[in-house]
Amino acid sequence: MPVSRLVPTLLVLLVAGGCAAAPSAPAVAIPPPPPPVAAAEASAPVVAPPRAFEPEAPVDTSALVTLFVAGEGCSPLEPRNAKLADGSPVGAVKAIVHSKAFAHLALSEPELEIEQSTARVELKGSGPRWSVHMLPACEQVALLGAIRMTLQINERWGIRHVLFTEGGNLLAI
Fold it and tell me: How much is the pTM?
């Protein structure tokens, strides 16, 4: 074959061979771009769908509390376990003050403040002239001792010290 005919044939082979398709790669699915978001939608807060109204169960504040109770005739204080509707220190002090042993003292609602590990109990009589100092010594010891021992023995309250006041003044006992 003459060279003049060979060159165009080689060119055709080279061009045809070079233009051959490369082995195909596996097809990769490219997700379409997300639609454009309007500016108002981009800044809107995400709000959870409304839920049906579910009333909360009532909180049970009752608890088993150790109360110290005075017996008949200034007998020694005795510990008793009692389930109180208000199992807090305030509920325990109210239970003692209004107990059968102290019903005759005509005490009004005591006030209780707890700061750190110290409780301050404000005692009040139902009348303006009532005073803890007017009580016989054994009733003073029974009342104040029952309150103090009850507040200190129930460890979950964390009360270590108990102070008694009357009319805002510290009682010297």
Answer: 0.63
